[in-house]
Design goal:
Layout lengths: L5 H14 L6 H8 L3 H9 L6 H11 L3 H5 L4 H19 L13
């Protein structure tokens, strides 16, 4: 999955801030996330990228998972994650012989 650009992340931050109840101002979100309000404004406008640590702090302040801000809600990724236990079991049992006759190594 390609890395999200600063504009997309900024729009998601602003959107999620608007969804919060009660609605948070930029100053309130900046205070809760521990970032300067000017930095938050630039992030929301897409004028500045944000590090993973800053995005994590913003997501925690909003009470959401960081994947929401990164746009990592890929349906195929969810299906793959759901299939992993079954695939792991098949791979783990692959080397085990059936109950039938076993050929000698020589």
């Amino acid at each position: 999955m390609p890395a999200p650009n600063a504009r997309e992340v900024g729009l998601r931050v602003a959107y999620q801030r608007g969804l919060s109840r009660p609605r948070m101002t930029q100053q309130q979100l900046a205070d809760r996330a521990g970032v300067h309000v000017g930095t938050l404004r630039k992030i929301e406008r897409g004028a500045r990228g944000a590090s993973d640590a800053v995005l994590s702090a913003i997501a925690d302040a909003l009470g959401i998972d960081i994947s929401v801000l990164l746009g990592a809600h890929d349906r195929s990724a969810g299906r793959v994650r759901a299939a992993l236990p079954g695939l792991s079991a098949v791979l783990a049992a692959y080397d085990l012989p059936d109950d039938g006759p076993v050929r000698p190594l020589s």
